[in-house]
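Hey, can you fold this one?
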Amino acid sequence: MSATNRRPPQLPSEDEIAQAKEASRQLARLLPEGQRSLRLVTENNHREMISIPPGAIRLFMDVLTQLGQGRSVTILPEKVELTTQEVADYLNVSRPFVVKLIESKRLPARLVGTRRRVAFEDLVRFDEKERKIHRAALDEIARIDQELGL
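Sure. Predicted structure:
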C-alpha cells in the first residue's frame, strides 16, 4: 500500500476498545511464547488452523494493546517514504515547517522529480532525537526552578 493510499488513523470506538482489551488478554493467556498456531472460527462456524510467525503475533498483540488503550494504530512497511504533508501530519506541524527542516538538512529527504520524500525510518529517528532534546530542555528548566525555589 503506498503512503498516499492510506486512510488517516481512526480512534477506536468504546466497543472496539473493550473488544481489543479482551482479545489481548485472551491471546496473552492462550499463546505461550513461541506458539505459532491459531484456530479461527468464523461467524458461520467455518474453522481453519493458521500458522502465524511469532513476530506477527507479537505485532497483533501490540496493536490490540494500543487499541485497548484507546489509541489509533497505523502499520507501515519499514522502507516506506512519506510526502512532506504526511511528515507534517505525523509531527503535528505545518508542511512549510517540514520543508524548512529538509532544506536546513535537519531532516533527511530525497527528491522524486520535484517532490520531496522522507524515509519513515529517518522521520522516526528525527522525532526521537527532537524529543530527547525537548526532554533535556524541560529537565534543565525544572532543575533551575528547583534551585530558585519556584
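The first helix runs from residue 14 to 30. Let me know if you want another pass with a different chain boundary.
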